[in-house]
Design brief:
Elements (H helix, E strand, L loop, with lengths): L2 E2 L6 E3 L1 H8 L22 E5 L7 E6 L2 E8 L2 E5 L2 E5 L3 E5 L5 E4 L6 E7 L13 H4 L10 E3 L2 H18 L6 H22 L2 H4 L4 H16 L6 H8 L3 H12 L3 H19 L4 H7 L5 H12 L3 H8 L3
Parallel strand pairs: 2-4
Antiparallel strand pairs: 1-2, 3-10, 4-9, 5-8, 5-10, 6-7, 6-9, 8-11
Length: about 325
């Protein structure tokens, strides 16, 4: 069974537990970890190409870091409350505990993705230092960016070197893979800093408030349900926050909180066998009937109907 994160309503998967969720059962490819001999596998790290990947995944959480590299084609992804479109030369990042989903994989899509546990690089960097060293893995960071052709070539070159090490019994292969992964992260950080993405959330009030508000909602929505709570965290008035969110997104600030509740409920219904009553309690509804009304109003289905339909999708 999947391990549980801070909030038990949504499963948080380890590397091995999540593999059937992102790889097709009939996958016959041989890149990276796909059909890799058991004795060649390395604890805490996996690498794949998009060949053999499922077209849809999530929403769910994982207890590892993810780097997704798009070489061509299109994929829609969602990180917390933020929507992104993968295209040629784009990169996205997720960190442990973040809600992730993917859909809309185009027929010509191709790329790579690397998955690694926080402790995998501990010989080079302490696990708790990863978000500070590589800001695209932090809540306040930008989790999506576009690479220049030369940068993409450098990154995919490291991916190919890692794959070569994985497939061989060479002396020191484990250390080589860790070093190549660290160098890949440094290459990505150089692009991140070149684009000054670390400064984008500070440019104007609105560009700061909107992404920061969405990240805070993704992190605290189970315990903070009022817009005023987030306004306090952000150091603005509720009216100012509401106005900034509406002008930027066309929706109210409270709709973002509701959206996260719906996504959490859907994930719990789809990926766990927790009872409807227990999910209602975990999401802090006064009673199951109130949860049923809320879910039906927002989705057009009862929680039970959604769970049954999800089992066949």
């Amino acid at each position: 069974m999947p391990t549980r994160a801070n909030h038990p309503s949504i499963p948080q998967y380890s590397l091995e537990e999540s593999r059937p969720l992102h790889r097709q059962p009939e996958d016959t490819t041989t890149f990276g970890y796909s059909n890799l001999e058991e004795e060649l596998k390395i604890k805490g790290f996996e690498l794949y190409s998009s060949a053999g990947v499922r077209a849809q995944m999530g929403p769910l959480k994982s207890d590892y870091y993810r780097i997704s590299i798009s070489v061509r084609g299109v994929t829609k992804i969602q990180l917390g409350l933020e929507d992104f479109t993968h295209g040629n030369g784009t990169i996205s990042f997720t960190f442990p505990g973040q809600i992730f989903s993917k859909r809309g994989l185009s027929d010509d899509a191709f790329g790579y993705y690397l998955l690694f546990e926080p402790a995998f690089l501990e010989d080079t960097i302490a696990p708790d230092r990863i978000p500070a060293e590589f800001p695209f893995f932090a809540y306040a960071g930008v989790p999506f960016m576009q690479l220049l052709p030369a940068e993409l070539n450098a990154v995919t070159g490291f991916v190919e070197r890692i794959n070569t090490e994985l497939q061989q019994h060479h002396h020191g292969r484990d250390k080589a893979i860790r070093l190549y992964l660290y160098l890949l992260l440094l290459e990505l950080k150089r692009s991140y800093l070149r684009q000054e993405l670390h400064q984008t959330i500070q440019d104007t009030a609105h560009t700061y408030l909107v992404p920061r508000y969405k990240k805070l909602v993704s992190e605290h929505f189970l315990t903070k349900r009022k817009v005023a709570d987030y306004a306090t965290l952000l150091g603005v008035t509720p009216n100012h926050l509401n106005r900034a969110i509406r002008e930027s997104t066309g929706h109210t600030a409270s709709e973002a909180i509701t959206d996260m509740l719906v996504r959490e409920a859907k994930a719990a219904l789809r990926y766990s066998d927790t009872t409807i009553a227990a999910i209602s309690d975990q999401l802090s509804f006064s009673d199951p009937a109130g949860f049923n009304r809320f879910f039906r109003e927002k989705t057009g289905q009862t929680p039970m109907a959604y769970r049954k339909n999800a089992a066949f999708s």
